[in-house]
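So, does this match?
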Amino acid sequence: MLFPKTIWELNKIVKLLKRSWTKSHQRHLISFIIFGIILQILSCSSHKVEIQSMVDSEEVMLFSPIEYQGIRVGMYADLQSYMDIAKELGISTKIVDHRFINRRGSFFEKDGRRRFRVLIFSGGESYRWFNQVTGEGITCEGVRNILSFIKSGGYIIGICAASSSLFASTKEFINPDLEEARRGEWKKTHRHSGFFKEFCGVSVFEGIVRGPQESNRPYPTISFLPIKMNPENEIVREANLPPSIYQYVVGSGSLIPDKRQPLDVVGWFPNGTAAIGIVPYGKGRIILSNPHPNVTGKRAEQIRKGMGWEEHARRWGWTDEMVRQGRKKMEENPDPDGPEPDWALAKAMLSYAYRKASQ
């Protein structure tokens, strides 16, 4: 039935009724019409609320600092690959920056419910993601938002030592800085607090992230290393992964937990240290993946053969001869087991994180 939409229409109907119906009939029908108008208004209001709640319907957020957008090839590869993986899983994604991270409303509804399920951090130079360094980046309020998100049941996937260094209490970087590299001091090691701890006084993984691996020094040497999978781990078990997977490794650090720090190991480097592990925090978890299983196949070859890697190496003090030798090493050592097992692992990690965060 169509109900009158204006008071003028209602008055018109009432006048017609007065001429033909008894007062009792008139009262009943007018009450029915008014009730219908109220239902129509409520229906429109509830429809608007439903539309509003779908505005931020993406389920996986991928962090990208503004200064890196379109510049760092490796970071772009991490973001694009996980967008592709999410698409295969039927999961919606959105790339966000520090402004999103710094707003509590980005993470939580007014009633405290989480607005999305998974947050992904890529590789890169993560110390430059912070407001204290660049003047425009993640603030301590943003760090608190991230930790509250995890504690409430949200999941994080952190790729490369760059992301592990956010959450760890200590980072040990076995590599010279630029000035030391120019002096040929290639054996230098730098030890400092993890970045959440350094800038905001908090950490989640009590332990050390130590890297690059010996085979990948000096940074940014690229290689494919065999990562031994843990058959007891839920991700490995449910995805039916092979015992060992060669994975793309650059600055990847080992996860060395303190005695009281829980760590569910997903895979180990050839030297027996943890390469990928799951760190519990409140109701949520952080998957720290120091290798890049998501960067494989054509995407890995584009980085290995592209000019972006060479420019990055020179930024870290590499000479022309070092660049030449580095390229030669990469050409002589392609991915031995191909892209399929790497991709299966990366896909299994996102599937696991999404499923657990949805419970």
User: Anything to note?
Assistant: The first strand starts at residue 60 and ends at 63. The first helix runs from residue 7 to 20. The chain has a mean pLDDT of 86.
